[in-house]
């Protein structure tokens, strides 16, 4: 017997306790209060501007133009577009994490006990209108259909928020099961590369979900997804991370990224960035480790 019915019931329960809307049996979302979203958006913009060495602007069109002009600046950006925290802008990183913690805290406020583990390493993802050259052909290219279960274990849920940019033409594209009776938990086994699991896509078909700006979206790992760019797409900035609900273990190579509760950044906790812009990129401890592994230190205040 597969875990699919449990996953569907878990999502139904979360929609109820967190007052979210069920988009389908494995996908929920809810609008974020405007003031909280505005704080998050600003903190992300300032963080990105520091990491890519340009002047921040609150004007979205100006910001995107400046960001696109820095496409060549890869010192602090991974091939998949992740913005890596460094010593030189640790304060801006903490300001971003603070605003993210406040947003998630509001999202789960109707019943915070359903959040069992909180991931403190959300990805800020820059997805330019065309793929970064060194990401093309990589086994972990997010333009490949994939489940986060393949690198994080089977029991988390994808949490995604488009923040700004061309979110209508450059977005997270979801797939749905062709036949739920054919679902097998083997679809969610871990793999060092997405390429090794592409056989799973034979059991899925396109869905028509396009994530909305200003909403937090949560989907079960049983829904696979990919980065999709329509013709003439422009740059998009988004957050992706993991939500854990239920009595499940985190992948052992990712445990250091999680806390049992949401911290008060700047009051209870400060995140020290141990790597400088001029340091060589730290080696990942294992193939499943996050790009921040070993480069962040939690300082209790």
Helix-strand blueprint:
Elements: H1 4-17, E1 21-24, E2 27-31, H2 34-51, H3 60-69, H4 90-107, E3 117-119, E4 123-127, H5 149-152, E5 157-165, E6 170-177, E7 204-206, E8 215-220, E9 225-229, E10 236-244, E11 258-259, E12 269-273, E13 296-300
Antiparallel strand pairs: 1-2, 2-8, 3-10, 3-11, 4-10, 5-8, 5-10, 6-7, 6-9, 12-13
Helix pairs in contact: 2-4
List its salient traits.
301 residues; alpha+beta; eight-stranded antiparallel beta sheet; three-stranded antiparallel beta sheet; 13 strands; 23% strand
Q: What letter string, H or E per element, gives the SSE order?
A: HEEHHHEEHEEEEEEEEE
How many helices? The count is 5
Q: N- to C-terminal separation?
A: 47 Å
Compute the CA-based radius of gyration: 18 Å
**Stretches with pLDDT under 50, minimum 5 residues:** none
Helix content: 10-25%
Overall mean confidence score, pLDDT: 95
Biggest sheet layout:
8 strands, antiparallel
**Number of separate strands:** 13
Please, what is the oligomeric state?
Answer: single chain
Q: What spatial form do the alpha-carbon principal axes imply?
A: globular
User: Which structural class fits the helix and strand makeup?
Assistant: alpha+beta
Strand content: 15-25%
Provide a short characterization of the protein structure.
α2 runs antiparallel to α4. The chain is of the alpha+beta class. It is globular.
What do these coordinates show?
With 301 residues, this protein is an alpha+beta fold. It has five helices and 13 strands. The protein has helices spanning 4-17, 34-51, 60-69, 90-107, 149-152, and strands at 21-24, 27-31, 117-119, 123-127, 157-165, 170-177, 204-206, 215-220, 225-229, 236-244, 258-259, 269-273, 296-300. The strands form three sheets. Strands 1, 2, 3, 4, 5, 8, 10 and 11 form an eight-stranded antiparallel sheet that branches. Helix 2 (34-51) packs antiparallel against helix 4 (90-107). The longest helix has 18 residues, at 34-51. The chain is globular. The mean pLDDT is 95.
